[in-house]
Design goal:
two-stranded parallel ribbon, 2 domains, 13% strand
Length: 267
Amino acid sequence: MSHTAHIRSHRKPRRSATTSIAVRAGVAGGVLSMAAAGASASAFAAESTTQTIELPTLSADLGSQVAESADAMQQAAANYQLQAERDAAAASAAKQAKADLAEAKKAEAKKKAEEARRAAAEEAASRSSARATLSASAGASVSTSSSTATGSAAAVIAFVKAQIGDAYVSGGTGPSSWDCSGLVQTAFKQVGIDLPRVSQDQSTAGTQVSLSNLQPGDILYWGSAGSAYHVAVYVGDGMFVGAQNPSTGVAEKPLSYDPPTGAVRVL
C-alpha cells in the first residue's frame, strides 16, 4: 500500500452551481436592503427639515398679570422708601425734642437760681436796714441795766459765759459745740427750767417784755414771736451771750451788734 493513499487533498472544493446562485442572491438582497434604508433616511431627513416648531405666545391675561406684578413691586418699594423717610424724620424730631427739653430745664434751673439769689439779696438788705433802724434807737429803747444778777439768773448767766469760745454747730447741744437754742435750753436747765428745743418755741415760752425793760437772764429773740430764727441770753450792761454763727461761735456781743426783735422772761 502506498503511504500517500491516506493524506487528504488540499485543493479547495468546487462550489456547486446551487451554492453560487445562493451567494449571488444574498449579495443582491443586501445591496437592495442598504439602498432601501438609505432612501428611507433621506426621506426622513427631508421631512424633518420642513417641520415648523411653534413657540408659546403671551396671552393678554398673562401680560396683564406681569404688568400688575411689576406695578405692585414698584409701589412696595415706594412705600418702603416713604416709611424709611418717616422713621428718619420721627427720630430727628425726637432728638430735637430731647435737646429742647434739656435746654428748657437748664433755663428753668438758671431762672430759679437767679430768683433765689435775688431773694437772698433782698432779705439781706432788709435785715441790714432793720438792724440799722434798731441800732439807731437802741440807746433809747433798750435798757442797759447794770444791776448784778442774783439767784437763778446769775446761774444762767454764769453758764452761758462759761461756754464763750465754743464752736457753733447746727443742732449742737454741748458740751463743746452749740447752736443758739441748744445753748439757751441747756443754760436754763441748770436752774430746773425745761425750755422747748427750738427758737420759735422759746420766743413764746415766757412773758413778753419790752426791750426798754430788760433784766439779766431774759431771753432775747430775733424775728417774730413764735417764728423767731435766733435766740440768746441777756447778761446785763447792754450785752448778750449767744451761739451766733460758725464764724464767731459762742460769743458775748453788745445789743447794737445785732439788735433783737423782742424778749421773754421765764425767771
